[in-house]
Task: structure prediction
Amino acid sequence: IKMDHVTQNIVLKYLQEFKTDSTSTIARTIMKENPGLFTDFESARNYIRYYRGQSGSESRRKLDVEHYVPRVNIPEPIEQNYEPYIINKEDYPLLIGADAHVPYHNRDAIELFIEYGLNMKPKPNTIILLGDWADFYKLSSWNIDPTMPDIKQELEMLKSILTSIRKLFPKAKIIYKYGNHEERYDRYLMTRAPEVFHLPHTHLKEQLELDKLGIEVVTDKRLITAWHLTIIHGHEYKFSINNPVSPSRGLFMKAKKSAICGHFHQKTEYSEPTITGHVIRDWSIGGLCNLHPFYMPLNKWTNGFATVTITDDFYTVSNKEIISNRIV
Result:
């Protein structure tokens, strides 16, 4: 929108005087009281829309604050990024491991996970650490045993594992998808120390030096989209997707599309065709943690991980289970 200062001042004057009137009413009033100022009604209306910020977000950004006269003063919304993280075709094969719960991890299971990746042909182009690699037991809301490892020890152990994975897979893209246990860390800061929450080097990403390790972070319950497959930790839904049959069926009932998750420490698979014959298939993968931790020694957990490969227009999920230190 270009206009001389005289026309601009007249338009802004009417906008201030008739702030709550409709755009069309102001346009007619200006044309009636200032004949010849605009060539036609639509031209006058477009000028008013521009200065009211009704011509789109790009136009609003170009407006000087003093020239922006909205009809209703609605503040800008707080923008949050929930756009999915996209896995491209060149990022395959994928190696996916979840729920190590360091320092309550299963050392043999993590070693088998890494060894399998090193022996894959072709090697994984992307490694997805699918949440809850940290535990943060001391930051939980449960009754806490003071003899358990403290946060400093836990962070050092996890950083050591992440450093080893990066050294062994120097060319791979590594993605750390936060789970509910990683979110414990920021939630603790927000509730217990909100004054330091925005200070540098206080967040988990900095504590683990993930930028230095070249590890990308996917936070805020964002999805990971791998072509037709959606990858989540499993806590993204407000209410549990657990199901009396299996977590994968619970995931199917919530997502209604092919997806894979961790979180439940169980290897399960569920599939169901649509009315048109399209098969929706969902998976939950086993964890890389101790299967009988002190806080829940009796459970239905299994150790495992998954791979995703792609051929032409078809992807294949291989849901691995670890039994007696063997991959089956």
